Amino acid sequence: GENVEQHPSTLSVQEGDSAVIKCTYSDSASNYFPWYKQELGKRPQLIIDIRSNVGEKKDQRIAVTLNKTAKHFSLHITETQPEDSAVYFCAAGDGNKLVFGAGTILRVKS
Amino acid sequence: DAGVIQSPRHEVTEMGQEVTLRCKPISGHDYLFWYRQTMMRGLELLIYFNNNVPIDDSGMPEDRFSAKMPNASFSTLKIQPSEPRDSAVYFCASSMGTGELFFGEGSRLTVL
C-alpha cells in the first residue's frame, strides 16, 4: 500500500520568511496530493491540492510542487505570518483513499 | 450547510464499555470516511463508504471496531469492548469524490 513520509517534523521560522515542507510517497499509482492545515484542537482543512497531471500550483502565498519521477511533492509558504502557525499534513492517494504524512508543526515567530 | 456533524464531541468511558460515535455528512456528498488521529500514529483511515456501501475497511484495527451507514445522512462507528489504546480523536469526513475531504470537528475519546 501507499506510504507517505513527511519532513521536517517541526519547523520554526521568523515572520516574513518562507517555509518549505517536503513529502515522499511510494505508490506510483497515486494521482492526488492534497495538503491540510490543522490548528490546535480544530479539524484538518484543505489548503491546496495538486493532481498528477500538473507540476506546480499556486494560491496566493501558498504553492505546491510535484515531481512524479522522484515521487515527491512539497509545500511552499512565502511571507509567513503568525496565523500560519499550525500542523500541516500532506497526503497521497487516488482521490478517495488517502494516506497522510505524520505532520509538520510550523511555528512562525513574530 | 452546517458541515459534517459529529457527536459526541467528548466521550470518557471505562475499559470494556461500548462506545458509539455518530456522523452526519454534508448533504449531497456520497463518500464518507472515518479517520482516527493519535500522536503516535497520526491520521489513519479506518473505513470509507460510497453511496452507503463500505468500500475499504482494511484500516479497521480489529473486530472490536465496526461501522455502519444505514442511509445517506448517518453513519456510526462502534467500539465494543473499548480499551485504553482506543483513546484518540475520531474524525468523520465526507466528500463528493473529487478529492477534498470535509472533516467534522471530531470526537475525542478517552478510555480509562
Question: Care to describe what's here?
Answer:
The complex is a heterodimer of chains A (about 110) and B (about 110). Chain A has no helices and eleven strands. With about 110 residues, chain A is mostly beta strands. In chain A, strand 6 and strand 7 form a beta hairpin. The termini of chain A are far apart. Chain B is mainly β and about 110 residues long. Chain B has no helices and eleven strands. Chain B has strands spanning about 5, 10-15, 20-25, 30-40, 40-50, 55, 65-70, 75-80, 90-95, 100-105, 105-110. In chain B, strands 2, 4, 5, 6, 9, 10 and 11 form a seven-stranded mixed β-sheet that branches. A four-stranded antiparallel β-sheet of chain B has the order 1-3-8-7, with no helix packed on it. In chain B, strand 9 and strand 10 form a beta hairpin. Chain B is globular. The chains are: A mainly beta (about 110), B mainly beta (about 110). The interface of A and B includes residues 42 and 44 of A.
List key phrases describing it.
heterodimer, A: 110 residues, mainly beta, six-stranded mixed beta sheet, five-stranded antiparallel beta sheet, 11 strands, 57% strand, globular, B: mainly beta, four-stranded antiparallel beta sheet, 55% strand
Write a brief structural summary:
The complex is a heterodimer of chains A (110) and B (112). Chain A is mostly beta strands and 110 residues long.
Radius of gyration of chain A, rounded?
13 Å
Q: Biggest interface and which pair forms it?
A: A-B, 20 and 20 residues
What separation lies between the terminal Cα atoms of chain A? 41 Å
- Major sheet description of chain B: 7 strands, mixed
Number of helices of chain A: 0
What does the average pLDDT of chain A come to?
A: 95
Average pLDDT of chain B, rounded to a whole number, is: 95
Q: Work out the number of β strands of chain B.
A: 11
Shape of chain A: globular
The secondary-structure element order of chain A is EEEEEEEEEEE
Q: Which structural class fits the helix and strand makeup of chain A?
A: mainly beta
Distance between the termini of chain B: 36 Å
Helix percentage of chain B? under 10%
- Radius of gyration of chain B (Å): 13 Å
**SSE order of chain B:** EEEEEEEEEEE
